Every structure is written in C-alpha cells, then in structure tokens.
Amino acid sequence: MENIFSMFGGGGMPGGMGGMGGMGGMGGMGGHPNMRRTKSKPRATVNHIPFSLEDLYQGVTKKYKITRTVNGSERPETVTIDVKPGWKKGTKLTFEGKGDQPPGQLAGDVVFVIDEKPHPHFRREGNDLVYDQDILLAQALCGFAFKIPTLDKRALRIDISEVVTPGYVKVVPGEGMPYRQGEAKGDLKIRFNIRFPSSLTG
Question: Where does the record place the Chaperone DnaJ C-terminal domain (predicted)?
C-alpha cells in the first residue's frame, strides 16, 4: 500500500509534526499546578428524637445539646429544633456542618429524625386520629353521648343517635392532625367496642 504521507514529499506532514516532540511542547498536560483535591466529608451523625402526639399536633420548639469532635477535641454545642404542627414520624431535620470534623476533612452534618411516642388514647393514621371507645349493648341500641379529651386540651362532645353495629366507625371531620401546610386537619375516627353481657337474665 502506498504511504499516504508520500504526497507531501517526505516522511511527515507539512511543517513537520515531529517538531511537537511527542506533544511535550503543550506543557505535558500533567494537570494544572494550582488544582487541589476536594476535602472529604464524614458520614452524618443521625439522632432519633421522640415527640409526644401533643407536640406533633400543636408544634413545639426544643433545644438539644450535642457534642462534636473537631480535630480530636470535643466541643459542646446547642441546636434548636422547631417542630411544625403536623410533622410525622420519619421527618428529618439536617444541620449542615454541625457534625464531627476529623483532621483534614470538612465538618459533617447532624441529622435529627422525628419519632412519635405511643399515646394512651389516640393512634395516628396519616393525618387522621383513631380513638377506641368501649360501650354497653344498651348504649349501642339506644344512643348515648360522651366526651373525648383532645390533643389541644378540649373536651369534645360526641352524640350518638344511630344504632351502633359491630364495625361501625363514627367520623368527625376536622378533628385529626393538622396538615403541614395550611390550617386544614384530618379526621377523627371513633371505633366502638360493644361489650355484650356474659349471660341473659330473666
């Protein structure tokens, strides 16, 4: 096969590409001398903090003490957690640069994860609240009224005029947990446990 460079009258291209010296004249392309490596960042410190259902209903602000290790020395600090009404279990709050800082690295983050304490009366289902009420068979057939202590310390009166059958659920709109945005709230669901008599009397 004919040498394609022969048309230029020699063993190389015009101007002599060989003069580039293996591209050494371009500074070696070994990297800019001012480029620096990015410092690494340690893994975030995660803390789980339990809150009562009342706190998650109304919102609360609390301060927590943390201890950071910076270049081998411990440093106490205080962070403020502002829990908004309607926050749920699993909500995360990140404080950037408030974590440990090993030598030669950037400061890590601290992450607080919201947990929910069990409540003696209510269970949370999304933005709804569930309340269990024991009643007698006579109440289920004839109707009755009772009061529920709410999370914001009200006495909510509930009137039952219909016959309560097994599995019946009374829904009270707007008496559940608040949504994270706006003033809307979920519902209160009342489930009834009918207590039947153990024996029949004549």
Answer: 49-197
Who contacts 99 (Cβ-Cβ below 8 Å, separation ≥6)?
42, 44, 45, 68, 107, 108, 109, 110
Q: Give the domain 45-116 fold.
A: HSP40/DNAj peptide-binding domain (2.60.260)
DSSP state of 80: E
Q: 101 — phi, psi (to 5°)?
A: -135, 95
Span 42-62, average pLDDT? 95
| pTM: predicted TM-score of the whole model, two decimal places | 0.74
Place of tokens 């480029």: 35
CA distance 136 to 171: 20
User: What is 122-195's CATH number, 2.60.40.10, 2.60.260.20, 2.30.40.10, 1.10.3720.10?
Assistant: 2.60.260.20
Please identify which residue in the block is written with the tokens 């003490």. Answer: 65
